[in-house]
Structure formats: structure tokens, C-alpha cells
Structure prediction request, 419 residues.
Amino acid sequence: MTSTTVLTTLRGTCAALALAVLLTGCQADSDRTATPVPAASATTAAAPTPDPTDEPSTDPADDQTTDPASSTTAVAGYAPGEIPPIPLITIPDLSMLDASLSGFTHEITELVGDYPGLTVAPASCDVSGTVRSGAGSILLYGDGSGVYTGPDGTTVNYGDGSGTYVVDGVSVTVYGDGSGVFASGDVSVSNYGDGSGVYADAEVSLAVYGDGSGTRTDSTGTITNYGDGGGVFAGADGVTITNYGDGSGLYSDGSVTIQNDGQGTATVNGVPVPADPVPPVPAMGVFPPMGTIEPITSCGTTISLSDAALFDFGTSDLRPESEQTLDSLAAALAETGAPTLQIGGHTDSISDEAFNQQLSEDRAQAVADALVERGVTATLETTGYGETRPVAPETTADGSDNPAGRQLNRRVEIFVPTF
Prediction:
């Protein structure tokens, strides 16, 4: 099959909040997320912080006495020489397609607008009222077992997925092999029963080919996964990321160009720096069985902001580039009149547990302070979860690093309970 379109997080039309479940795939061992990845921009390494306008020195004496990485321009939110991972491909949880449950999620999506690294999705809660981590999307990676386990440990067995469901007045018939078709308005879902399928709405188009490969296209760009460790992300803002599957890769955003040779060295705008090989892109799994389209009830809305869209690498200091996103978000929250906001900071598992816990607390508080400064009068509750609530695996089944999964886990989430 040929690569066609790629996927981004469903917005607006996705209404009912659903459990985000890890999609198990017949040939995939790892997971990827569908959340839009913030377009990287040139910034300076967090520690130490050189002037980003300074040109790297070409004086041989300077090369002998200065660590190149300490004075090299970096991609925002990443260490010098590090190439951001190609985003994980995800699909909205099919149980969220009931438009009657969109409500606040649709409203806040329209008011906030489209910003890199910011996603809005319905949320689902467990019986105690606790929001399930990662709710709102399905990661198209797994082991093909037919049992879907979310990264927060929640497990759902959909059996053979057969039956008939009514979604927003439309009858959906699915067969014993999980195949079926749903179409209503802008949303269409087709599962061919062999692990392949397609999803499309007004903003997202996705194809899963069942052999580990697939594509997704939305307003942020196109993700192509070749299923062999290689892949490409072509951003609508000009950012391109290429993973050749052999440890080498290429990144470019118009200001920063990084070439990784896969042998321990990368060049950043021509300046060599030490760099680990680029981990391979995990193969995709199978398309979700149509049985997962049966609606469940939403308990609120989750607004997620990636760390790279807000903070410099390893810090809780808000980047100047985050100002516009926070301005728009604060205005939207004020207009909707949400009475309570629960703000949670999350990290990946890199660094020690104590550092991650403190960083998550500081980042949650930084976002809360920024919203208050912008006139948000809702009651704000901040919590740091450290590395305890991942939404994506950070390693593949064979133990390899999964940087795209770690990227999804580094985030600040704002949960708006139904009101």
C-alpha cells in the first residue's frame, strides 16, 4: 500500500469522553500518540544559557577549551544536538464520536484556537471520579492480543467487537472479525478486519495498513511511519523530521538544522556535538475493532500542553513563545466561565524521581500563575504527579528507548470538570 494521510487529535466533533486505551497491534511492540507535537523552534540550551544570536566560534583554540554543546543552538525543549522524535500516531477514541456529548469540549476548542503542542479532548473518569490518564485517544501500537491496556493500567477487553450500536442516531453494524463501517457527517471510520483501516473527519485523516506502517494528516502536518523503524514528519510550519531507522536522522525548521550520523555525533548548524543515535520509530499496530465505537459518558474536558510548547529543557520557566498560547487559553477559560480547574504537571521517567516530582509541581504552579495573571478567576487546584501518570510507554517491547512516548508524558494537563 501507499502512504496517504496521517492523523492528528480529533477536535470539535469528538464529544464523549472516553477511556484512552493502548491499541494492541499484530506487528507492533510500542506505542505512539496522536497528540499534535509542538513545532520546534530555535532556542538556547537551558544550562548554561548563551546568547542565541551568538555564532559558534570557529577558532581552534576555542574548540579545545569549550564544550561545543554548551554554546550550540538547540531545538526548543531539547538538549543541544537532540532531534525531536517523530510524533506517535493516534486516533480519537471511537467511543467519543457521539456529537451529543461534545458540549464544553467543542466550545473550548473553538475558543482557544489551534496552537502547537495544545490539544483539547473529552475526558473519562473511573468510578471514584478520578480522570483516566490519556483519555481521549488510542495509541496505535501494541501486541495484537485483543485486550487494550491504557498506560495508566486500565484494561478493557472488547471480545470480538461484534454487535450493533447507535451513535448520534446512526446505526453501526460490526462483524465478528471486528470489521465494519461508520459514517455520519464529517466523520467516517472503516475497519477492514485484517488490521488495516481508515479514519477521517473534517480535520484529520488516518490510514493504518496492518503491516506496521501508516500515515496521518491534520492541520499540524503529516506523519508517515514506514513500519521498518523509519519515518517522516512534515510540519505545516516548515518543520521536518526524518528518521532513517538506522540511528541517523535529520531535523530542520528554517533556523536550526541537525544532522545525526547515528555514530555518536550530530552537527547543529554545522557545529559538531556528541549525540546518541536516533531511536527507531516503533511499528504501528492494528486498527481498533469497531466494537469500541459504543459510546461512554464524559466527565469533563482535558486540555493538554506539551512541555516543549511551554518550557525550556529541564526547567519550569515559561518560554516567551508560550505567551500567545496562554493568552488565548486564559481568554477562552474566562469566557466559558469554568468554575474549577485542576492543573497537573507530568514528567517522563528520565532523571531521578525526586527531581521529576519537584519539576512537575513547579510546572503546574507556573501555568496556574500565568492563568491568574491573565485574569482567570476560577478556583485553581495544582498537583505535581512526577512520572507516575504516563500516557505512553517510554520503552518498546524489546526494551529500546521510545522518545516519542516520553515526549507525550512531559506535559501539563488542565482538567475542567463538567459544570
Summary: Residues 353-373 form the longest helix (21 residues). The chain is about 15% helix and 30% strand. The chain has one domain: 22-417.
